[in-house]
């Protein structure tokens, strides 16, 4: 009886929280200003295409967008900064609302999966206590709620390493443009337009926004580095701001910085390959040991039986 009451209370609390999420809160002026400054998409209109309007996928996508909007408003109203996740979200080009909506959706789906699993086990003949589905549901819901954070961290680490390699190439391109007689702002913009790779697109957007806002390109690069959590861009912005009037020193400094970054990447790659080689060596040793035990077992068993 106690477990039934506890399960019912948890279910009611979940339904109440879900209803509160879908209710549209009334954002204040500070909330709207913060959302506009952060470039968030909350409360913005979304025009669905014909493929989105037809079928279940369109309805699901629309529901996820509405849930993301509600959660974005809630996060801004309550001042949820999300810690280090914000830099990962900025690097991946996602909003807080979409990430929170994914966490809620995955956690809710896994929470509803527990009763289904319990019913299948009961039908198959396994006599399980009534407390099992409640504990299983809470465990799966917690796992599903934090699983998007782990996936985001892994994806952001991969993309951040990719961005770090691109910065080294970008520095070489800027140095070559400076050697060709261009000024520093023109060299930065020209180096960012040589490719449509997503990293150079982000740099190009930052430089274009700097021109619109009336700030210097190195300030824009520093802001981009802080937003996505990339120290190399912040160091580059500091070096450019200190030597903005001396093109020759900037050119040599950028070339040296690019060479240092390449050596660092090469060292990291060699270290990673060494770790993989050690792992393969340990695996081979375990396989060899197991094979020797397999060969020696019949003889040892005969000796012990004699």
From TrEMBL:
Protein's recorded name: Flp pilus assembly protein TadB
Residue ranges of domain Type II secretion system protein GspF in the record: 170-295
Transmembrane segments: 6-23, 100-121, 133-152, 281-300
UniProt keywords, alphabetically: Cell membrane, Membrane, Transmembrane, Transmembrane helix
Protein's membrane topology: Multi-pass membrane protein
Record keyword Transmembrane present: yes
Lyase recorded as keyword: no
Compartmental location: Cell membrane
């Amino acid at each position: 009886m106690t477990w039934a009451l506890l399960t019912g209370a948890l279910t009611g609390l979940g339904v109440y929280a879900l209803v509160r999420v879908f209710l549209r809160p009334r954002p204040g002026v500070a909330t709207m200003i913060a959302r506009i400054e952060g470039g968030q998409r909350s409360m913005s209109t979304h025009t669905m295409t014909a493929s989105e309007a037809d079928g279940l996928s369109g309805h699901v996508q629309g529901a996820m967008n509405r849930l993301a909007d509600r959660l974005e408003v809630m996060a801004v109203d309550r001042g949820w900064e999300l810690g280090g996740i914000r830099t990962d979200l900025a690097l991946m080009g996602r909003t807080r609302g979409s990430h929170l909506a994914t966490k809620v959706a995955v956690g809710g789906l896994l929470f509803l999966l527990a009763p289904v699993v319990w019913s299948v086990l009961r039908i198959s003949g396994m006599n399980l206590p009534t407390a099992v589905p409640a504990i299983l549901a809470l465990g799966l819901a917690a796992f599903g709620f934090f699983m998007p954070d782990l996936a985001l961290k892994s994806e952001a680490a991969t993309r951040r390493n990719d961005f770090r390699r691109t910065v080294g190439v970008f520095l070489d391109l800027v140095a070559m443009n400076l050697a060709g007689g261009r000024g520093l702002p023109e060299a930065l913009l020209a180096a960012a337009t040589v490719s449509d790779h997503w990293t150079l697109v982000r740099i190009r957007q930052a430089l274009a926004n700097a021109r619109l806002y009336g700030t210097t390109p190195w300030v824009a690069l520093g802001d981009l580095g802080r937003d996505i959590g990339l120290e190399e861009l912040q160091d580059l912005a500091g070096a450019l701001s200190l030597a903005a009037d001396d093109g020759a020193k900037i050119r040599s400094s950028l070339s040296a910085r690019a060479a240092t970054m390449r050596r660092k990447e090469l060292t990291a790659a060699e270290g990673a390959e060494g770790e993989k080689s050690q792992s393969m060596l340990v695996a081979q040793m375990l396989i060899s040991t197991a094979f020797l035990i397999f060969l020696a077992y019949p003889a040892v068993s005969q000796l012990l039986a004699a």
